[in-house]
Amino acid sequence: MSQPTWIQLLTTPLDIARAIAYVSDVEEAGGVCVFLGTTRAERSRSAQELLALDYEAYSEMALKQMQQLAVEAQKRWPLLRVVILHRLGRVPISEASVVIAVSSPHRGEAFEACRWIIDTLKKDVAIWKKEVWTDGSGTWVHPQ
Amino acid sequence: MHIRVKFFAIVKERAGVGEVPLDLPDGANVAAAEAALKEKIPAIAVFLGRAAYALNREYVDAATLLHDGDELAVIPPVSGG
């Protein structure tokens, strides 16, 4: 039986407190694990400072994939609640582009599930980021 | 047959458009669509070889057969998170 999940793509800042509250609000929970991916300050080869990351998604496919990740994680670990939120559009330095939050009876499976969800999301989900530099130039990030 | 092809990220930027219609002979597969796209939009040819493809929002391989009305998407290496 699948447990409640909150899966969403948003163009506004991610509400981390609400994500934590969502996974915590279950009496059987003994461990909550949260991962935030944030925009890191960078300097380009031409000495430009990173202004922000611009995210784009194939939204219909990405949402379906994020749902499938939650379902698969629930098969692998005894999770009580799962939250997967990804922000689209411009994400300034230090703000979160992704929030993964899970709760489970014990901490071990919460850590493992959280790690697996973010690693798999980064590898498979149809979302892309573009680095936006202070001179106005942009660089798509497409790992080899 | 007539399909729609969606572009994202650098492929969309180079193509200058997010979606194109594509006419293919019946029985065409994903590899045939890729070849037709290279011819139709040379500016994205270099990216197509290392892209993945999604058919109706699921990853597929090059041998997968296409059907009239399909939505094919070119998925350059993803970088979410």
Topology:
The complex is a heterodimer of chains A (144) and B (81).
Chain A: E1 5-10, H1 16-24, E2 31-38, E3 50-57, H2 59-76, E4 81-87, E5 89-92, E6 96-104, H3 107-124, E7 127-133, E8 138-141
Parallel strand pairs in A: 1-4
Antiparallel strand pairs in A: 2-6, 3-5, 3-7, 4-6, 7-8
Helix pairs in contact in A: 2-3
Chain B: E1 2-6, H1 9-15, E2 19-23, H2 30-40, H3 45-48, E3 52-55, E4 58-60, E5 71-75
Parallel strand pairs in B: 1-5
Antiparallel strand pairs in B: 1-2, 3-4, 3-5
Task: Please give a quick description of this structure.
The complex is a heterodimer of chains A (144) and B (81). In chain A, strands 1-4-6-2 form a 4-stranded mixed β-sheet, with helices on both faces. In chain A, strands 5-3-7-8 form a 4-stranded antiparallel β-sheet.
Q: Biggest sheet of chain A, in brief?
A: 4 strands, mixed
Shape of chain B: globular
Largest interface: A-B, 28 and 19 residues
What are the secondary-structure elements of chain B, in order, as H or E?
EHEHHEEE
Indicate the structural class of chain A.
alpha+beta
How many helices of chain A? The count is 3
Number of strands of chain B: 5
Q: Provide mean pLDDT of chain A, rounded.
A: 96
Strand content of chain A: 35-45%
Largest sheet of chain B: 5 strands, mixed
Number of strands of chain A: 8
Oligomer: heterodimer
**What structural class is derived from the secondary structure elements of chain B?**
alpha+beta
Q: Name the helicity range of chain A.
A: 25-40%
Number of helices of chain B: 3
